[in-house]
Amino acid sequence: MNIVLLSGGSGKRLWPLSNDIRSKQFIKIFKQEDGSYESMVQRVYRQIKKVDADATVTIATSKTQVSAIHNQLGDEVGISVEPCRRDTFPAIALATAYLVDVMHIDPEESVVVCPVDPYVEDEYFEALKGLSVQADKGEANLVLMGIEPTYPSEKYGYIIPETADQTARVKTFKEKPTVDVAKEYIAQGALWNGGVFAYKLKYVMEIARRLVDFTDYYDLFRKYDTLTKTSFDYAVVEKEEKIQVQRFAGQWKDLGTWNTLTEAMEDAVIGKGELNSTCSSVHIINEMDVPVLAMGLHDVVISASPEGILVSDKEQSSYIKPFVDRLEQQIMFAEKSWGSFRVIDVETESMTIKVTLNTGHSMNYHSHKNRDEVWVVISGQGKTIVDGMEQKVRAGDVITMSAGCRHTVMAETELKLIEVQLGEDINVHDKQKYELEY
Amino acid sequence: MNIVLLSGGSGKRLWPLSNDIRSKQFIKIFKQEDGSYESMVQRVYRQIKKVDADATVTIATSKTQVSAIHNQLGDEVGISVEPCRRDTFPAIALATAYLVDVMHIDPEESVVVCPVDPYVEDEYFEALKGLSVQADKGEANLVLMGIEPTYPSEKYGYIIPETADQTARVKTFKEKPTVDVAKEYIAQGALWNGGVFAYKLKYVMEIARRLVDFTDYYDLFRKYDTLTKTSFDYAVVEKEEKIQVQRFAGQWKDLGTWNTLTEAMEDAVIGKGELNSTCSSVHIINEMDVPVLAMGLHDVVISASPEGILVSDKEQSSYIKPFVDRLEQQIMFAEKSWGSFRVIDVETESMTIKVTLNTGHSMNYHSHKNRDEVWVVISGQGKTIVDGMEQKVRAGDVITMSAGCRHTVMAETELKLIEVQLGEDINVHDKQKYELEY
């Protein structure tokens, strides 16, 4: 099975655990059997591999997520990187071209496209296989998943099938309705549209070539910023006559808000925290090193990270976005392909950061125009290169780097260091990358 | 007027803003006219000086609070330091001997003793003057303040006066009663005992000499750990026949819990924080650099500091102590006489601290047996002395100190530095102090 997982969104509705560079799908919130926690993207990837060990998984996403994806899923997973945001049709077209031209998959094969963040069980991935098999048959150009509604939701679009069969032709699509209208749809046998569908690669390649003049994936990638923003629904789904839907009646949850996310949490507390006995329906998700104590609360979610602290009534938590939009957006924590960093102190003319490099990884070789830096290695070992000079380093070693000097650090074991940045104009964009000459 | 302010308690009930070394009286929570915040001890000290600019103020406290007192009140204030905890009679006797033998105040003069943390207005300090004047007259050996009850509280002891006059002889004392008993007391004209009283210095000196064999303050200080733990109430008040009470009907609040403390806050939010419009009666006291967002809460206090995060129903907040007792007690923040420090990162074999030195101040000259240290100066200027070697330092300078090496830093301007401690056994008690030879 070929799968494209659409991984988008800045996920402000799960602030302070998500931010501009860490979307909700990367928050480690689901308890595993060994007691550790995995993220939505890790959970979905593990589930796919369990149902189909040979599945080709490609994640369609933006540049900002590439580091976090490699950090959480390793280097095996395919990534189709959108050079900029151009809505779902260009993103899906690019991922399709990536499968054909980079992964060299036969255009006659089908692919299943679905969001990266549904909270589902293995049966869902079995259903995805069903979509793929149906698309292979060629009875229709597009095969959608129709989710059996459990309540008359206003949050989803609806698909009305021609019959109540497991696989049926689509009669029509309906926009997100009011509750009353949703009830009518459901009475007519309507299904939720979860944005999951399968098609043969050649099908979307043909449509893309009709709409855009390009030779192959690389050419499309280069021209990406000139493409018109269009949704896949508008460009493809609504115009297609040969379209089927397959029913899915298993568990399917969209964990987009704290309210729904906490419902999927096995433990009431993740991280350091305690609820006293007068609390009811309270969840704590704490990524800080210090404890959270909750007393006498009801239906409240508390979430703390280096970015901030949210304390919200669960219902109210879905209205968080405008508040987060107004907050200063200094990134205090990020997962990178080589490890992670965390801002631990900010002053007018300095910034102190804790850097963790994973074993065998290194930063880019880079320099800064307007700041000096000092590294104090606090654990592990590795080597630094500063203006071409290599040096073995271990806990206790101090490296000073003036503005302009090129530097990197390579971790032989997991390596942690405190980085002090000094200068009048400290700025994440002040970074020049270089190739390392060996 | 001579005043002794009793400054005690570890104040766990205001966790996470108070801890083993920062008691509640040092939390900056009261808004001043210029928009900055002052602590209880700063507020009380300012109020005393306003009512009586020449007042001799002495704070009776333990060693752990000396740094914070100098940091908040400067070097002018007198401090009588208890070498160890021995309850209120030894503490008051020591402070009395301090006034006589160190401050050289005439033993015929009177002194007013009161807690450091009442939330009161200027009229209260006028009333203290009244107590002092009454004690000077010598009609009684002890003159207590009796606070007009505003409700039948179970939290206070009661004083029953012989008459309803402004100044009256005390008929009897009553322990903390139940509400119903409190009502009866109040019907009899009882007053709250706020632990405020005045006496002539010689009076307590004589009692102390009767109970303890000592020559002067210095001798008493040396013998302090051999003294029996006794309360002033038991050793003095309950045995005294010549005892009066003066009525006080002004504002008097005991801000011992988050519930009562938030009532005295002028703004709903101190520090970075925001309440959405569906919050009611919510207070945020945030000492962290990152924002707190509260949504849809009612009657809740949220308090965040480098020690932890409390989210509590206001009523419930008075039951916090057992939870805090169980928490690990790593001190993450402290005010010292020379400035302050804050722990910003903790690892198994390293600890990173941000140190702020006030202009003109320096640390003790000291060394550590089991850890190396690195300083990175991030702002200001001054000089370091490392094993006798002086060096001018400014932002960007790095000083490395091996275990055993003696070091200090002196701030010529306000000076901030990041200190990285490295070693297998990092411990606050691993510190040897030395005299600096010039």
Determine the fraction of residues in helical runs of chain A and give it as a percent range: 10-25%
The overall pLDDT average of chain A reads 92
What's the end-to-end separation of chain A, in Å? 41 Å
Strand content of chain A: 35-45%
Number of strands of chain A: 30
How many helices of chain A in DSSP terms?
A: 10
Radius of gyration from the alpha-carbon trace of chain A, in angstroms: 24 Å
What kind of oligomer do you see? Answer: homodimer
Q: Largest interface: which pair?
A: A-B, 58 and 58 residues
What does this structure look like?
2 copies of one chain form a homodimer. With 438 residues, chain A is α+β, with helices and mostly antiparallel strands. The first copy, chain A, is built from 10 helices and 30 strands. In chain A, strands 20-21-22-29-24-27 form a 6-stranded antiparallel beta sheet. Chain A has a 5-stranded mixed barrel with strand order 8-11-9-10-12. The two termini of chain A are 41 Å apart. The mean pLDDT of chain A is 92. At the A-B interface, strand 17, strand 18, strand 19, strand 21 and strand 22 of A face strand 17, strand 18, strand 19, strand 21 and strand 22 of B. Strand 17 of chain A pairs parallel with strand 19 of chain B, so a sheet runs across the interface.
Please write out the topology.
2 copies of one chain form a homodimer.
Chain A: E1 2-6, E2 30-31, E3 37-38, H1 40-51, E4 56-62, H2 66-73, E5 78-82, H3 88-102, E6 110-115, E7 118-120, H4 122-137, E8 142-147, E9 157-161, E10 167-174, H5 179-187, E11 191-200, H6 201-211, H7 217-223, H8 232-235, E12 243-248, E13 252-254, H9 258-263, E14 269-270, E15 273-275, E16 280-286, E17 292-295, E18 298-305, E19 308-313, H10 321-326, E20 333-336, E21 339-347, E22 350-357, E23 365-367, E24 372-379, E25 381-386, E26 389-394, E27 398-401, E28 407-411, E29 415-422, E30 432-434
